Structure formats: structure tokens, C-alpha cells
Amino acid sequence: MFFKIQKSPKGDLLYIVEQPSELRAVLSKPELEYLSQRWDQGSRLVALNQYDKHVLIAGLEGKADDERAEKLRKAGAKAQNVLNEQHSEAVTIVNLTAFESAGYCIAEGMALGGYQFLKYKSDAKRNRNTLKEIYFDKQSITLKAVHRLQIISDAVGIVRDLVNEPPQYQTASLLAEAFTRLGKEGRFKVQVMQKAKLEQLHMGGLLAVNRGSIDPPTFTVMEHRPVGKAVNKAPLVLIGKGVVYDTGGLSLKPTPNSMDRMKSDMSGAALVAGAMYIAGQLDLPVHLIGLVPATDNRPGQQAFVPGDVIKMYSGDTVEVLNTDAEGRLLLADALHYAKKYRPELVMDFATLTGAAANAIGDAGIVFMGTADEAVKARLKTCGARQYERLVEFPLWEEYGKLLKSDIADLKNIGSGPGGAISAGKFLEHFTEYPWLHFDIAGVSHDIKSKDYRPAGGTAFGLRMLADFLIGYAGRDQ
Ligand code: BES
Ligand code: ZN
Ligand code: ZN
Predict the structure, then answer these.
(1) Are residues 464 and 391 in contact, defined by beta-carbon separation less than 8 angstroms?
(2) Which tens digit of pLDDT belongs to each residue from 135-144?
(3) Ligand 1 atom with the shortest distance to the CA of 419
């Protein structure tokens, strides 16, 4: 989607109002009568005048700002459907409500809701949405906001594309290549460590998971250094789980259904790349590092087996009791690697446990960690504002005991319930800096379309993270 502030309106016109009467000065009498009639009948998106004028009646009264914003995003997704059905190519948004960010939110819902993954459609042209341009009148948005909207909604598309890519076209190496291309476009540095290097470093967690694969693992290091001075002396590190496909390994996931969505097991990696892209494009004054350990997880002749004791990059030994708990093994290596930066804060994003998804479903993200309360509170605010909400789980000591192994330093699964937390406890063992873990298993991928998230990869969490990074960089909201 292309966004711009435009003096003279282009394409269809979309007015956002609270009440039909607010359009007295703009509409003809018959239009206004028709609109009032439809409003009385309960319509909230009304097409006027041979369909080139539309009125969105927002009904925002009495709602908190975060809820209004979300309501408008959803309305934007609906409006986008209507405009595409009418083969409209452009729309100009005019916000007449007192809610300043109404135009932004509607447009965001339009762009995100209009996302399509057509790469493998033979008749892509026929399927493609017509709506490509969203304009605003001068009063409805600021130049800065339009710029931000463009970059963030582009980044959502980039992340979704990465998640939606079929697994045979997205090995660990191909994922690393995609990051390298994105780095060129998005102005951040990308370095890829190949298998030989990982062996030399003894990245035992990542290498163990990779043993059943016919494709080598990769470890991508991304870096954004602002052109000017950064607000942080020590870097902020983002880590993303890059399991390009998770069969469970020899602890094979039961068919028929549990593997269907496992190409999305690199959603954390995609989020990190998306955040690097945003930081680069906005030239955020933060020093930011992105780390992605990547491999697929498969059974194979050489595959690691339940019972193996592996030596991690940190030197710790881990008894593997379930090869499907693979994400924590490669994340642990990345968390250890992060120590060399003496980071101010480390955040990892991972489709880590079905337990997180079972606990809260797809309405939000489970997070936990050792960073201070102020950081957690800021993240929660960003989550609420973007409606990618966060709920904190505890990391009480007792959960750590579940990971005790008789023969190694740790085992890779907890015993009993609380699986999202014991996974978090496992990761915590490999940290020695302020750290937060985001379990995005419940939100990263959906088989059904929902509001402004079409079926497939959602990029859920990216807007929350972008909001946080922008605030971290000291830029106003
Ligand atoms: N990638 C899965 C988690 C997952 C589940 C992501 C559902 C998205 C949707 C992860 O590697 C996994 O298999 N976790 C196991 C851990 C268990 C064996 C301790 C799980 O959650 O079942
Ligand atoms: Zn798994
Ligand atoms: Zn996994």
C-alpha cells in the first residue's frame, strides 16, 4: 500500500464521522438524507453517490483510546473489502472526528487487512486487490505519521511474506539470504555464520537440532547503528527463533494436524528482521542487534534422539528428553552469544510452546523475564496501544526445579504443567543481563482470516515492538 498526504482528493473519498449531521456542509441534501436513513438502520459504512464517496460512522463515544484505535483498524479492514469489491484503486481519507489518530488507524486497518500472499497463485493478477493508494487530506494526519505508517505497514507485509513462504523454499540458508537482501533494502548490516563457523564455536544446541536435517543451519547477526548518536551505550539485542520447519524431530508431532502450521516456527526470526527494517528505515537512534539461529527440525538417520546429552554453546550440558522442545536449545545458544555485547536489554521472540497458546489463545502474547518493571510496564502500554497485548507469566524459582536432570546440568522439558514457564526458565539459565521472553506460539499464524489479519502469518507483535523501539529511541509517539 502506498500512503501520501494529498491536496486535492484522489480516488474514492472516505469520510470518518461520529454523526451523519457532521457532513451537512459537504454532502448534498439527498445524500445526507440517504445517509441518515442508513445510519438509523444501523449501517456504519455507507457508500454514496455511485460509490465514489463513502462515509464511515465511527461511533467512538465512551471508548478508551486503545479500544477506539482497534475499532477503527477493524473498520478500515472492512472498508478495504468494500473498496476492492468495487475495484477502487485509490481512496482519500478525511477524518472529521476529534480522535486525532482515526485516519492513521483506518488506513492501517486497510493496509494490513488488504495484505495478500499471491506468490504461488497462477492467476495472481486476477486475484490481486485493486486498492493500492491511500491518501489523506492535510488535516487528517501529519507527515511524520504517514511516513511511520508506510514503514510499519510495509514491515508487516515483509514479516508475513517470510512466515507464509512454503518450507521447501525457505531453508535456514535461504532464510539467511532473505535477511541479507532485506538488510540491503532496509539499511541494516547482515552477517551470516555458516555451519563450519558454528562448529568451530561449538554451538551445540543449534547443531543438535540440525542433525536430522539435510540442510545446514545458519546463525544470522543483524546490526542497526544509527547515522547519528544512539541513545543507548550498550546495545539492545533482539533474538528470534528461526526454526524454518518443526516436525518435532524423532519426537514426531502427531499427524494429521499438528504439523500444518509449522512453517511458521520462524515467526520470531521474521519479527526480528521486521524490527531491524523499521529501525533502519526510520533511522532510530538506537544501537540494535538482531540474532537468528536457524534450522529445520526433522527426524533423520543422524537426528538427535531423546536421551542424548548435548553440550551447549555456554558449556552447560542438557539432557534431551523431547526433540520437539527444540526452540529453547537454539535460543539458549543465541542467548549465550548475546552476552558478548554486554547488552542493556535482550528480548527474544519465539513460537515456543503450545502451552502459551493454550493458556491465552490468540488474543495476546505471553511474556516473562528479568528486565525491570519500568520496561515491562512500557511494553504493556505499547501492546495495549497497538492491540497486540501482553500478559506476564511468573518466573518463580519453583518452576526451575522442574528442569533438573539426573545426569546433566539441565533437561530440555519440564515435568508437569506450566510448560510456557518451564520453557522460560530454561532460557533464563542462559542469560546474565536484563531479559524478556515473548512466547508468540498462539498468535503468529492463523488458518482463518480475522479482521485486519488475513489467514496465514500475522506479524502479531511487530507493531507492539516498533512502538516500543520508537519510544526507546526517545521519539514521541
Ligand atoms: N514450535 C512448537 C510450539 C508451537 C506449538 C508453535 C503450536 C506454534 C503452535 C515447539 O517447538 C514445540 O513443539 N513445543 C513443545 C514443547 C514440549 C515438547 C515441551 C510443545 O509446546 O508441545
Ligand atoms: Zn518443537
Ligand atoms: Zn518449534
Answers:
(1) no
(2) 999 999 999 9
(3) 19
Question: Any residues with CB less than 8 A from the CB of 368 and at least 6 apart, and which?
Answer: 392, 393, 394, 395, 421, 424, 436, 437
In terms of DSSP bridges, do strands 90-95 and 45-48 run parallel, antiparallel, or are they unpaired?
unpaired
| Spacing, Cα 64 to ligand 2 middle (Å) | 39
DSSP helix/strand/coil, 155: helix
| Atom of ligand 1 lying closest to residue 444 CA | 8
**What pLDDT, in 10s, does the model give residues 176-209?**
999 999 999 999 999 999 999 999 999 999 999 9
pTM: 0.97
pLDDT tens by residue, 387-445: 999 999 999 999 999 999 999 999 999 988 899 999 999 999 999 999 999 999 999 99
State whether residue 117 is helix, strand or coil.
coil
- Candidates 243, 326, 352: which one to mutate for ligand 1, based on the most atoms within 8 Å of Cβ? 352
Q: Please name which of 242, 239, 240, 236 lies closest in space to residue 279, comparing C-alpha atoms.
A: 236
Q: What is the DSSP letter of 136?
A: E
Angle, CA of 272, 106 and 392, to the nearest 5°: 45
CA distance 327 to 350: 8
**In angstroms, what CA-CA distances link 109 with 70, 115, 435?**
9, 10, 32
**Catalytic annotation present for 119:** no
Residue 195 annotated in active site: no
Amino acid at 247: T
**Residue 218 gets which letter from DSSP?**
E
Complete DSSP assignment for 252-305: PPPTTTTTTTGGGGGHHHHHHHHHHHHHHHTT-SS-EEEEEEEEEE---TT---
List residues near ligand 1 (CB under 6 A).
Answer: 246, 265, 322, 324-327, 351-355, 357, 413, 419, 441
Atom of ligand 1 nearest to the CA of 243: 1
Cis before 217 (ω within 30): no
Rounded Cα–Cα distance for residues 170 and 176 (Å):
9
DSSP E strands: which ranges in 150-241? 189-193, 218-224, 236-240
- Ligand 1 atom 22: residue of nearest CA: 354
Cβ(455)–Cβ(449) below 8 Å: yes
